[in-house]
Amino acid sequence: MFDEFAVVRRRTRAGGHDESSAPLFDDVEIRESGDDGGQWHDLQPGTITTPAGCLIREYSLPADAMHLSGQEALIHVSFRSIKPSASCDYTATFPWLCDGFTIGLAVQGQPRYLLYSSGMRGTATIQSIRQHQTKIECSSTDLILPGSVLVQIAR
Would the pTM count as exceeding 0.90? Predict the structure, then answer.
């Protein structure tokens, strides 16, 4: 049996994580703006770590955006990734208070199903809109408590 995730593990072990992750993630865009929707600032990527078989990269504010630290802000994250079919769970964690969110997932190909699993703390209500067999959007206008999790699954 072909272990699709073995390819990911080999690529992340070969050489520096930044260079080896390039074939896995393309068009990565993480930016932040004040809650007024003003100027957007591209966050600065850190190094990639691989705890427990996953890829984690921390991002930091650039010097010209330090005034946003500790303030309410809008965060935009988008990327394309090549993931093996056996590893198609996308997890969004909320380490801080969040005044609502919208998370969309679009998958190329024909997944058998596309759904989400909510691990929200408190009483946040999640709305789910299936835009197409290959697209799902989850959102909430409620206050999201720290420690909440939303997992989008494509199989």
Answer: no
